[in-house]
Design goal:
Layout: H1 4-12, E1 13-15, E2 24-27, E3 31-35, H2 36-48, E4 58-62, H3 72-88, E5 91-93, H4 100-107, E6 114-117, E7 131-134, H5 137-144, E8 149-152, E9 155-162, H6 171-182, E10 190-195, H7 204-213, E11 221-223, H8 228-236, E12 256-261, E13 268-270, E14 278-280, H9 281-284, E15 291-294, H10 302-312, E16 322-325, H11 330-338, H12 341-347, E17 351-352, E18 372-375, E19 391-394, H13 397-406, E20 434-435, E21 465-473, H14 480-483, H15 487-490, H16 497-500, H17 512-518, E22 522-525, H18 538-545, E23 548-553, H19 558-566, E24 570-574, E25 588-592, E26 602-605, E27 610-615, H20 620-627, H21 631-638
Parallel strand pairs: 3-4, 3-6, 4-5, 6-7, 9-10, 9-12, 10-11, 15-16, 15-18, 16-17, 18-19, 21-22, 22-23, 23-24
Antiparallel strand pairs: 1-2, 2-8, 5-20, 13-14, 21-25, 24-27, 25-26, 26-27
Helix pairs in contact: 2-3, 2-5, 6-7, 10-12, 10-13
The chain binds alpha-methylisocitric acid and iron/sulfur cluster (SF4).
Length: 640
């Protein structure tokens, strides 16, 4: 009576008790992925572990984020990453090949296997029944070294699908509906496992869209069964041998069941500035828009762009709209060229961009002041476009395409033209932009370090009494894009911690880095779900570099909590969330960790002469890592 999650976790369990969902388990990781914005740190960390080569079945280093090369820095990073792939035995997906999650689904993902990726949208692999988890770069580096990945035993939530999507309602609307129901922290320490008769009506790219954006619920991962449709997809990718049947047992048990009737769904939209802020498109139809961006790891598959081409065919976009399309991979592009659907896109006025993350991470295409940008992406956080006062609305490719024609937000069901497209029986396979692991003696291979690659700064061990000032107090739903913004200007600094730390919290309080350094560090007070969003460990490393000792919040997002611990910042929680009100910026406080037991700990507020009780949600392992001064020293002490 096992569900899919239990089956895969049981197969991969190396430590802990699967039946006790209050505990931490260690699982074997079969595959890893990194991308260039998190990869440089991950391979510097791997280097620090002094392991000659990776120990996973397969690891891939992708270049897809930092592809706008306005000076030497991004390409310095690419060269470093290529040399690291060669030295340590990884596949290397060259810049311009496509977005990591899209390519991984096409070329490498395998049902029943585990995947750890230094990117929060790694769960895209769940579309083919892979147990795919996002994590910080250091956790991925440690997995590449053959060590288990540790996670809380998740609660498995069954999303039971019935019915069939109606015309112009698509997979994006399914995941927006999930977000409408459970919100941006409804998935915390949970796996969203899909089943029911509706599953077989969804193709693999559609399933990938759903598991991809499951990340926005904070879920550990999302997963679909591996069935006949998965088999056909893998066969069409010339990977029939990678298929295996993976289904829940008939009497599988779940913690909770959420039923979604696909036939009843309508086009949905996520309003600024949270992917959990869902409305029906109908409710705000007519909203004037200035920009439409189609692409990202959520909606850049061949299925999605064929659908867009079908809507744009023979039509012209509105004169006031800038429409960009970033295909997910070269395979997608080659097909669109062969079928001439690329011509439909171009003739309509679309600006076809490189196959990368592009506008999704603010690598170009920043909208105009106060613009409304309609995007098929997964995140609409403040400032993420590169324009602070712009607003992002998240929609399906169908809603985006018809809205681009009309110059305003439009329910795609009003499209009167012919809407049809056919998927190929066999995909065009061309892996010439993926360099396989080198067969040469890797000891001789040197890592190429241009001036942009700076070594990891040394960090001080944790003290038993933490003292200092409250440097910043923020509200609920602070994302890693608030803590460590991305975009074309800041992303090139990802391999240079001292330089990138100058931008910590710059969207909220540009003076923060200066103040933190002047005060020799201190504390940050947060609200609910602090650190939601991306896996970027820079949102922990850079504050650590500035001297941040602890974050005291109402609750934390999973990946960010791991990252804080990995770099020696203590994540603490208000025992009574109301106490959040009792502490202000500038308060001088002390926290005694009580022999590092973390029991009965309190904030001693010297300025206000009061005390506040704290708790935490860390495992014993987390505490050991903190005591060791972070995960690198912890791993080194274990001397594996
Ligand atoms: C994102 O979508 O925010 C990113 C950029 O892909 C991040 C990773 C990063 O910050 O490098 C993510 O989702 O983990
Ligand atoms: Fe890239 Fe955007 Fe996907 Fe992140 S969410 S991996 S930036 S496409």
């Amino acid at each position: 009576m096992q569900n899919i999650t239990e089956k895969i976790l049981k197969d991969h369990l190396v430590e802990g008790d699967l039946n006790n969902n209050r505990t931490t388990i260690g699982i074997k990781i079969d595959q890893t992925i990194t991308q260039d914005a998190t990869g440089t740190m991950a391979y510097l960390e791997f280097e620090a572990m002094e392991i000659p080569s990776i120990k996973t079945d397969l690891s891939v280093s992708y270049i897809d984020h930092n592809t706008l090369q306005t000076d030497f820095r991004n390409m310095d990073d690419h060269k470093f990453l290529q040399s690291a792939a060669e030295k340590y035995g990884l596949y290397f997906s060259r810049p311009g090949n496509g977005i990591c999650h899209q390519i991984h689904l096409e070329r490498f993902a395998k049902p029943g296997k585990t995947l750890l990726g230094s990117d929060s949208h790694t769960p895209t692999g769940g579309g083919v029944g892979m147990f795919a988890i996002g994590a910080g770069g250091l956790d991925v580096a440690v997995a590449m070294a053959g060590e288990p990945f540790y996670l809380k035993v998740p609660d498995v939530i069954n999303i039971y699908l019935t019915g069939k999507l109606r015309l112009m309602v698509s997979a994006k609307d399914v995941i927006l509906e999930v977000l409408r129901r459970i919100g941006v922290k409804g998935g915390l320490n949970k796996v969203l496992e899909y089943s029911g008769p509706g599953v077989k009506t969804l193709s693999i790219p559609e399933r990938g869209t759903i598991t991809n954006m499951g990340a926005e619920t904070g879920a550990t991962t999302s997963i679909f069964p591996s069935d006949e449709i998965t088999k056909q997809f893998l066969e069409a990718q010339d990977r029939g041998n990678d298929w295996k049947l993976l289904e829940p047992d008939n009497d599988a048990r779940y913690k909770k069941k959420i039923e979604i009737n696909l036939s009843e769904l309508e086009p949905l939209v996520a309003l600024p500035h949270s992917p959990g802020n869902i409305r029906k498109v109908k409710e705000i139809e007519g909203l004037p828009i200035q920009q439409v961006c189609i692409g990202s790891c959520t909606n850049s598959s061949l299925r999605d762009l064929k659908s867009v081409a079908s809507i744009l065919r023979g039509n012209k976009i509105d004169n006031k709209i800038s429409l960009t399309i970033s295909p997910g991979s070269r395979q997608v592009v080659e097909h669109l060229i062969e079928s001439k659907e690329m011509t439909d896109l171009i003739k309509s006025g679309a600006r076809v961009l490189e196959n990368t993350c592009g506008p999704c991470i603010g690598m170009g295409q920043a909208p105009s002041s106060k613009a409304i940008s309609l995007r098929t992406f997964n995140r609409n956080f403040l400032g993420r476009t590169g324009t602070k006062d712009a607003e992002i609305y998240l929609v399906s490719p169908e809603t985006a395409a018809i809205s681009a024609l009309n110059g305003k937000l439009t329910d795609p069901r009003s499209f009167k033209g012919k809407f049809e497209f056919n998927m190929p029986k066999k995909f065009i396979i061309n892996d010439n932009m993926i360099i396989p692991p080198s067969k040469e003696d890797n000891k001789k291979i040197e890592l190429i370090r241009g001036p942009n690659i700076k070594p990891l700064p040394p960090f001080l061990p944790l003290y038993e009494i933490l003292k200092g000032e409250v440097l910043l107090k923020v509200g609920d739903n602070i994302t890693t894009d608030h803590i460590m913004p991305a975009g074309a200007k800041i992303l090139p600094l990802r391999s240079n911690i001292p330089a990138i730390s100058e931008y910590v919290f710059s969207v909220i309080d540009p003076e923060f880095p200066k103040r933190a350094l002047e005060k020799k560090g201190g504390f940050v007070i947060g609200g609910d779900d602090y650190g939601q969003g991306s896996s970027r460990e820079h949102a922990a490393i850079a504050p650590k570099y500035l001297g941040v000792k602890a974050i005291i919040a109402k609750s934390f997002a999973r990946i960010h909590l791991d990252n804080l611990v990995n770099f020696g910042i203590v994540p603490l929680i208000f025992k009574d969330p109301q106490d959040y009100k009792l502490i202000e910026v500038g308060d001088n406080i002390e926290i005694e960790l009580n022999d590092f037991t973390f029991e009965n700990i309190k904030i001693k507020n010297i300025t206000k002469n009061n005390s506040i009780s704290l708790i935490h949600s860390m495992s014993e392992r987390h505490i050991d890592i903190l005591k060791a001064g972070g995960k690198l020293p912890y791993i080194k002490n274990k001397q594996f």
